[in-house]
Design goal:
Oligomer: heterodimer
Shape of chain A: elongated
Number of helices of chain B: 6
Largest interface: A-B, 33 and 32 residues
Helix content of chain B: 55-70%
Largest sheet of chain B: 2 strands, antiparallel
Order of helices and strands of chain A: HEHHEEHHHHHHHHHHH
Strand order of the largest sheet of chain B: 1-4
Strand content of chain B: 5-15%
Distance between the termini of chain B: 6 Å
Number of strands of chain B: 4
Number of domains of chain A: 2
Helix content of chain A: 25-40%
Radius of gyration of chain B: 19 Å
Distance between the termini of chain A: 117 Å
Strand content of chain A: under 5%
Number of strands of chain A: 3
Largest sheet of chain A: 3 strands, antiparallel
CATH class of chain B: Mainly Alpha
Number of domains of chain B: 1
Radius of gyration of chain A: 29 Å
Chain lengths: ~325, ~210
């Protein structure tokens, strides 16, 4: 089909079909959305379908209609979007106006997407986030393959800066790990980017004792990235052969976790006489968390006991010599 | 020189004691390795310490069960009963013997007989070690072995912190007990006499 014919066909289809959401849109619009976004009603022209689990297409000429499920990859959760880092945006800030046409022209499917660096790079406003360093790390990462973009992990419609503002670290860890599992626990998504064999995360970590406790207490990137002190979250994902498998990297006084998971959290948040005390807010790492008072007390008690025994032996030897 | 020879340590006690001692020593060593893990500078890798510690802990726990059941079904349990009766004066008397009397060749205030295997200090320390310390050590150890099954908070503190600190404190106290136990075992007629008893089962005293 030649391009002009295709365009005509698209226009005809657009006028032929009426598209509407299943329920009353106004019920879904919470006051909190309007507090953060000036384009809520404009955005509804997209979200009335993309914000729903299903939608209806009706042909006004025949009166026939059909229910369709919204493909989950194209679904946008309103709550998630209006609490994300991009909550102030209109859909068309990033997406083409061509999306206002339905069915969407095929060109929109392959539109060039904005990436993090397009807006955030080399901009003083965002300097504190070190996007340039993140980009550089990504370039060196094993994730730097064709079609792999920031969005593969950071869904721009729902991304929240969880770690930076984490009140509940366990929730932040879950959020972070789910980013990895989106592909690494979903082989269909995984195959979009690679021809590698399926990785079963549980099986590939069967060497790890107390697997559940580890998965709940640390992020995948604790072991699968290279430490970088200049950015909050390391983005240089290492090849599997370079992943941390040495327990002492975390389970020791100089725990790696203090340079990764707990790097930017205030050491003042929790003390209580423990080494690497900040970890105790969320977890407890044998070897890394030692109670300083108990350490000192144990040396004193052991030392005194030893001295008493040595003194007793001395007196016994002296007595034996005298007799 | 008159000597007395009493059969005090039946074979099951001696085997239990031997296994208990070996496991305890390995557990102390691997426990220290885990507690003070020092990366590549450690004697043995962390994961090896964990594996050895876990296996020995399970053996020690089963062995402890044998001890408790053995004490219930054999006569050995009587040596651990009625330990509170008039205890303070008895403890003081025994303490004075170890501190002073032993250097003046005074007779043992509580000589060992078939009915009285332990002196008051031994009795109290053994009761505390075996019936208070060991259960706490085993329970806290199981909590650390299966952290998925322990509650997140115990007495308003992180569950893992609670179990680990309890495990370390009790383990340390029992290690000090072991040190003193080993030393007091050299206080027989000769330094090796009491160790020999735990091999052949007979307590020997030369009058």
């Amino acid at each position: 089909m030649k391009t002009p014919t295709c365009l005509v066909f698209t226009v005809l289809l657009s006028s032929a079909f009426t598209l509407f959401a299943q329920q009353d849109d106004t019920l879904k619009l919470k006051p909190s959305y309007f507090e953060v976004n000036a384009y809520v009603e404009d955005n509804e022209s997209c979200l009335r379908c993309h914000g729903e689990a299903k939608f209806v297409i009706e042909d006004p000429n025949t009166g026939r209609s059909t229910h369709e499920l919204m493909y989950h990859e194209r679904a946008i959760d309103r709550d998630a979007f209006y609490s994300s880092v991009h909550r102030t945006f209109a859909c068309t800030d990033c997406h083409s106006y061509d999306f206002n046409t339905f069915p969407h022209p095929v060109e929109t499917r392959v539109e060039e997407q904005f990436l993090c660096m397009d807006c955030h790079g080399y901009d003083e406003t965002f300097a504190q986030y070190h996007f340039e360093d993140i980009e550089m790390e990504f370039q060196e990462s094993i994730h730097n393959i064709e079609e792999f973009t920031c969005w593969k992990c950071h869904d721009p419609h729902s991304y929240r800066a969880f770690m930076r503002n984490a009140d509940d670290l366990a929730e932040a860890i879950l959020y972070d790990n789910n980013m990895c599992l989106r592909c690494h626990a979903n082989f269909d998504r995984f195959t979009l980017l690679t021809d590698r064999e399926e990785i079963v995360v549980v099986d590939s970590h069967d060497w790890l004792p107390n697997q559940t406790a580890h998965f709940q207490s640390v992020r995948c990137i604790e072991c699968h990235t290279e430490i970088n002190d200049s950015i909050l979250i390391a983005h240089k994902i290492l090849p599997i052969t370079e992943a941390v498998q040495n327990c002492e990297e975390c389970h020791s006084k100089d725990s790696r976790l203090m340079h990764t998971l707990y790097k930017f959290q205030s050491l003042e948040e929790r003390k209580g006489g423990f080494i690497n005390a900040i970890m105790i807010n969320n977890s407890y790492v044998i070897g890394a968390n030692q109670n300083i008072l108990l350490n000192r007390l144990s040396f004193i008690v052991f030392g005194l006991t030893f001295l008493v025994i040595v003194f007793h032996i001395y007196l016994r030897i002296k007595k034996q010599k005298n007799s | 020189m008159a000597s007395t020879k009493i059969y005090l340590y039946p074979i099951w006690i001696r085997l239990w004691h031997l296994l208990n001692a070996l496991m305890f020593l390995v557990l102390i060593f691997t426990g220290i390795m885990l507690r003070y893990a020092a990366g590549s500078q450690g004697f043995i890798p962390f994961e090896v310490s964990v594996a050895i510690h876990n296996v020995c802990a399970i053996i020690l726990t089963i062995n402890y069960g044998i001890f408790v059941i053995g004490n219930m079904v054999s006569g050995n349990g009587m040596y651990y009963r009625k330990w509170r009766k008039n205890i303070l004066p008895k403890l003081w008397k025994q303490f004075l013997f170890y501190a002073v009397g032993i250097f003046k060749n005074e007779p043992h205030p509580f000589p060992i007989t078939k009915k009285q295997k332990f002196n008051p200090l031994q009795k109290v320390s053994y009761v505390f070690a075996m019936y208070f310390g060991m259960p706490l050590l085993i329970i806290s150890g199981l909590g650390l072995m299966f952290p998925e099954y322990i509650s997140n908070t115990v007495f308003k503190i992180n569950g893992l912190v609670f179990y680990d600190v309890l495990h370390i404190v009790v383990g340390f106290v029992l290690s000090i007990f072991l040190l003193i136990h080993l030393y007091t075992c050299t206080l027989g007629d000769k330094p090796g006499t009491l160790f020999k008893s735990m091999i052949n089962g007979y307590h020997e005293e030369h009058g």
